[in-house]
Amino acid sequence: MNKTFRFYRKVFRSNLPLSRPYKLNFALTYRCNHRCLNCNIWKLKPRDELVLYEIERFFKNYQFNWMTLTGGELFLREDIEKVFDIITEFNKDLYMLTMTTNGLLTERIVDMARKLSKKQIPFLMVTVSLDGERILHDKLRGLKGAYTKAVTSYKELRKLPGVKAQIGYTIYPESAGKFESFVNKMSEEISDFSVNDIHINTFNTSSHYYGDNTAKKVQNKYTKLATRDLRFFLKHYNAMGGVAAMAERIFQNLAIEYLESGTTPLPCKSLASSVFLDPQGFLYPCIIWNSKLGNIRDFDYDLRKIISSKKYKNLLKTIYLKKCPNCWTACEGTHSMLGNFCHPAFLRGLA
User: Fold this and answer.
1) Rounded distance, CA 54 to CA 273, Å?
2) Which range is least confidently modeled, 185-199, 201-215, 233-247?
3) Which positions ≥6 away from 330 have C-beta within 8 Å?
4) Which of 48, 147, 293, 299 has its CA at 20 to 30 Å from residue 230's CA atom?
């Protein structure tokens, strides 16, 4: 059986009871070279982060079919190439590897992506975060020149065979309603650019990940403008590009439902299908809900011991009852879609 078959077999099983995580969201470091207005990760002092032998022990005990790597800025890890080697060596059935970068370290990002493209990962994606036109993006990122660096990195990544490059655009309160002008500007920068090259997320906060639990109140004005941005996206999006393109369209249709209702549109599959691992080894259900499962160091780096615990089962039940924070973000929403093929909201998202 090949990696593709094994991946979709896990996807199918995630629609059934008693599924186990096949996706890992892994923040490799909280070091960051941006000073973002809507994220406090850069204010954290990185300490006691997992080192190579610990990461290796973790993946020796439990393997994943799908992995999303993030930070901070993950390419600030001096040993990032060795981390990639460990991930690809021990996760033999790794079908999908996605990662997010702010794009500042262009040469390093492109070099690492090129090396990863040779490791026979069926779906390899690098997302460059870009949240508005030049002045707005630099303001949101707290760094002059951030826009130019991000666009340069994105352009270079697009040239790499075997690498899917995309723009990650988050609708913040400061940028709501400005998506169309951003797309027009990017079309001037890149002649064949379209909304199909973008993934949109709505604004979320997290005390344990973004270091922000103060959450600017998302008022009706934000909801109206963000919904308008999403409708513009959907109007111009071509979902005929395969499974990934169709999933993106469903995700954004359901994002509109989330904005209007304030609750997750599908039963969340966090814990059942995925977990979030932070740089210090703490496991959480997701990047949003600050409820620790434990530290992998205390469980011999074995995820199986954690998911057989009473706490895991209790948190899983809480998620099932929708008593978690309720969110809709790509880190959790995508695998929740794949684990709810027959749910009415999934079918509505196909429209």
Assistant:
1) 23
2) 201-215
3) 199, 201, 251
4) 147
Quick count: other Cβ atoms within 10 Å of Cβ 341? 12
- What's the whole-model pTM score? 0.94
Give the residues across from 164 on adjacent strands. 125
Q: How far apart are CA 328 and CA 199, in angstroms?
A: 13
End-to-end CA, the chain: 33
Each residue's pLDDT tens digit, 68-84 = 999 999 999 999 999 99
Give the whole-angstrom CA distance, residue 323 versus residue 318: 5
Cα gap 292→326, rounded to integer Å: 17
Asked whether 331 and 286 are in contact (CB, 8 A), the reply is yes
DSSP output for 134-163: HHHHHHHHT-TTHHHHHHHHHHHHHTSTT-
How far is 313 from 48, CA to CA, in rounded Å?
A: 28
